[in-house]
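Extended Data, panel c. Modelled sequence:
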Amino acid sequence: MSVRAGVIVTGTEVLSGRIIDRNGGWVAGRLRELGVDVGHVTVCGDRPDDLVAQLRFLVAEGVDLIVTTGGLGPTADDLTVATVAGFCGRPVAVDPALEADITGILRRWRRLDDDAPLPDSLAAAIGKQSVVPAGATPVAPTGTAPGMAIPAADGLPAMLILPGPPRELQAMWPAALAAEPIAAALADRDEVTHASIRAYGLTEAELAETLRRAEHDVDEFSRLEITTCMRDGEVEIDTRFPTAAAAAYTELKALLRRAHGRQLFAPDGETLDELLAAALDGRTIATAESCTGGMVAARLTDRAGSSSYLLGGIVSYANSVKTGVLGVPGALIDELGAVSEPVAGAMADGACRVTGADVAVATSGIAGPGGAVPGKPVGTVCFGLAVAGRPTRTVTRVFPGDRAMVRTLATTYALHLVLDALR
């Protein structure tokens, strides 16, 4: 790619793990969407020497843009502007217009009259946040801290200084990109396209073998930047490429479809939740869950964008709930155990009967330690799927991992079971 960037996340609280970084990946992702090649995302504490070391590193790497996040507040450890300015050899001075803007923001927040005197501590804080390096373009604050855009000069790349609170940073992003020093730094970026394919039931090893074959069979394969990620049992294949190399991606996509067929459940990148919403197509659905404890219902309500088709979710760990609410015959549980396909099928039928749903999916399994019995190790989960007008389907799977992993993988499988039945 023609434009390269690096991101520095500052903050001792991030470095120590007390706060999880939500800025580095977000900024890198937005830059990559613009066609910028992000080579590094680093983290350092609130120490000027450490920040300078990272600035030197990125300059030596030959990046065209450095983005920093954090360290713009009014307290003594907020030193990013002064440190970056010193590194660039730029003196700093209070910008009167910026000082007036920040003063107005704080007066509104604190409900202070325009003519009311400011406490000394507040005035000092405003003065600190109003300092601008020579030649820099301030970016209007979305909280109280402005951003700073410093143009490339004297062998140094352009620099964009952004606040640490994610809400403020993200709200500032469009204006920061429009600032002249940053727009100039990004002017030569390539036009890029991002495309995703989602697969289920495909191992990373199988995918790696296919990609090795594609490396030889697809023209201009080297222009495709392919990232694969296993998440919740699904494999996401994300490809980023110059728009001029679209033909290479088309070849890759065709090769993947020939190799893996229906395992590529979303060849155009749709999420499982989006596909489920479309596949239900006016039908209603309910869940009856034991080992997944409501996680299937939560996916149907929280992520698909609309819950109008979910009529209800019944969590039925106790056998008394399976029999009393879902109508599962007690004799069936006594004979086969709660973790069995006939019981899972009866749970799905019961969920349809109780809620009036057109479709119901049920889970019953052994997710945690201590629940294993002969023939049913930890990770054994039985599923039932009832669809109006069809015989109820049952299936058993054994998932690896701890309790959390088993429940997550079982939830994904249950949703794919529904999707496969309705497509």
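The first helix runs from residue 12 to 15. This feature is highlighted in the accompanying rendering.
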